Amino acid sequence: MAMIYPNMTDEYYDEYFNVISNYNNQLCSNPNVSAFSRVFLPTLYSIVFIVGFIGNGLVLCVLVKYHKRSNVTDVCLFNLALSDLLFLISLPFWGHYAAINEWTFGDFMCHAVTALYMLGFYGSIFFMILMTLDRYAVIVHAHTSLFSKHRSVRASVAMALFMWALSLGASLPTIIFSQVKNESDGWACTEVYPEGTAWKLFSYIELNIFGLIIPLSVMVFCYTHIIPILMTMKSQRRHKAVRLILVLVIVFFLFWTPYNIVNFLKFWHHLGYMTSCQWQQDLNMAMQWVETIAFSHCCLNPIIYALVGQKFRTLVLKILKQWFPVGFRQCTTIVNEFSERRSSMSSRSSVISSTKIM
Fold first, then answer.
1. Which residues contact 167 (CB under 8 A, 6 or more apart)?
2. How far is Cα 166 from Cα 281, in angstroms, rounded to an integer?
3. Mind listing the pLDDT tens digit for each residue in 203-224?
4. What domains are there in the chain, each with its CATH number?
């Protein structure tokens, strides 16, 4: 190309390839994929937002209202729910963006929504890692004075602040390079990386390392040491604890692995591999599905980490009973009537069976 255009400077050279790249993207764009995303993404983003906001909101309300003396687990749960809420707040904006295929909120909101999205994304993962490490320290190193001495609320707050700082550091490149860009079909909120730099490749690698490799490695390492210790305990609740741990690892792996695989394929696409139009259309369609699956994981965090506990379920029912006394009274009446009918039917069936025997 330099031999064909010997007077072309580096700036015009980069601009030329940007135009060619945009032109190829327009040629490879599939109207069916765009029409599908306009209906599919806003609908599922709305469902994830409603369910996740209710679940994580209940977690925050219970932790604030009923836990006067918080422990390390409560601090981790609180920040995990808070990071999920930050992530969920960004979903209505992305849903509106997908519905009309144009960003209408301006440049400041592009940075702000991207910051909420990235902070919630990395915060949720990092606090899940912190909870896993805390359980590992409590169970595996229960008799080590070093862990029991420094396992206090003050230390957990300091660790929470460190995790938020780490989340901000991991999010900064995406936040800084996000901007509103005028494209052929309207304004877009996207990352615009400097030409001639490896920031875009770095963002793909960073997402795979912090989003899957590190958390999955930590969870597998910690829980492979935790499960044998729980199995040796003579407790009736050990099987529930082991089952809960397996659910944590399996659910995280199932929900986040497809997203990271597609992101890794996009990394290779950016390097110049799999550049056909069919590959680009398939990656765009696959990203819509795996993104929604990964985003819905924040709806399951309250269920997995908090609502599975009997004590937490009792507190949730208590606070719902205070907020909606009429509805709970009607539900209690229906449940009592159903129980009475069931007991009467069982007594009748026992009488009939005894009569037949006689």
1. 83, 118, 119, 122, 123, 126
2. 34
3. 888 888 998 899 989 988 998 8
4. 34-316 (1.20.1070.10)
